[in-house]
Structures are given as structure tokens and as C-alpha cells.
Amino acid sequence: MFRVTVGKVANAMRGTVGITSSRVVAVRYSHGAEESAEDFDKRYEKYFNRDGIDGWEIRKGMNDLLGMDLVPSPKIIESGLRACRRVNDIALAIRWMEGCKDKCGDQKATLYPYLLERVTPTLKELGIPTIEELGYDKPELALKSVFDM
After folding, report:
1. Are residues 21 and 51 in the same domain?
2. Contact (Cβ atoms closer than 8 angstroms) between residue 61 and residue 44
3. How many domains does the chain have?
4. Which residues contact 49 (CB under 8 A, 6 or more apart)?
5. pTM score, two decimals?
6. Rounded CA separation 131/76 (Å)
């Protein structure tokens, strides 16, 4: 509804005042001040450190983070792992680490070891095994390639 109204006002202004469409688009899609990286990290750390957070809310926060175009910082990963431990959901903690590994994309060889190095003390403290310790980094029932025979 708002978009239609703004479009009609823009068309009317374009004819009378001579405003170009680039100015109208800039006004139409602008929204609030940008959040700094530190504020973003603090917001998600605070979200995962809330008292009384349940498994559904943890999953929602993790899903929101993994849906963004970013790799979570080690501080956010640690607070997510601690939240998983508070609700005693080790499977969610392992999936969280697996999702963070997948978010590294083509930088997996350089970025994931850095994340793992920073998060390993927390994993040891909480008693959560890494993906590599569980063997989830290699397919279990994969067939050998015909080119390797």
C-alpha cells in the first residue's frame, strides 16, 4: 500500500517539479541508520544470553544469522553454543557449528580454521565435540570415485 502511494506521489512530483527517478528510489528505500559490526555482535550476544531462552528461540536466532550474507563472529558463535548448552541440546550445537562452517563458503580453507581456533576453548569447556571429531566432515557411505580405482 505504501509503495503504491509513494509511486503515485513520485510520478506526480516528477511531472511538476522535475525530480529524477534515482532520487525517488533513494527516498523510497532508505531506512534508519546502519548498525556497526560491534553493535550487531552485541545484539546477537545479548539475544543468546537472555534468561529463559528456549530451544525454539535459539533456533530462530541461529536461522536468522545463517540466512544473512555473513559469517558469524566467534563471539556470537560462542554465545550460541552456550545457549545450546543451557537448554541441553548438543545436536543443535553441532548443527550450529556445521552451519557456521558452511557459511564460510569458498573461504572454508582459511576462515573455518580461524573460527575453530577461536571457539575451541569454549567447545572444550562445554564438552561439545567438533564436527571433525565426530567424523561429520567426511561422507560416511560415499562410493569411491571411479577415477581413483
Report:
1. no
2. yes
3. 2
4. 79, 82, 83
5. 0.72
6. 18
